[in-house]
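TOKENISED FOLD:
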Amino acid sequence: MTTPQLEGWFVREVLPLEAALMQFLRQSWPNKSELDDLRQEVYVRVCEAARKEIPYPAKPFVFAVARNLLVDRVRREHVVSIETVSDLDALGVAVEEPGPDRNAMARQELRRLQAALDQLPPRARQAVLLRKIEGLSYREIAVRMGIGEDTVSEHLSKAMYALADTLYGDPLGGKS
């Protein structure tokens, strides 16, 4: 898959779904401060898959990725609302305790993530940590770092693409 084809497909087929995707995420995820991050992660996963083969039609694929992401998050966090449990039951998803092999894989993934974070420029790394670890809003990050919200957005966007590139391969063919 060439980068121009992937970018064209993404802009033409996926980005127009953003409003519907955000509505789905708002209705499905209890922590509203994580919605932008969830959307970004959906986009990264969609691009990763599309690098191998562009899915047609795009809409069901994007929403399947979003559902799978939410299921993964629920499994990781082990914090499940009654509504989420009923949704997972309907999907036939079993939440289970990880075994020793999963724990070892998780530790290895954390080491890879730490190495990838260490490669980021200091300000971008700080923005990512404030957003992802401390859960601060863009406005709170801007105040803490003494920069504008647009600059926070730029730092986070570039950092997330760099992390995705380091951890999974370049999701958009080098475009930052």
Notes: Residues 98-176 form a domain with the Arc Repressor Mutant, subunit A fold (CATH 1.10.10.10). The chain has nine helices and no strands. The longest helix spans residues 58-77.
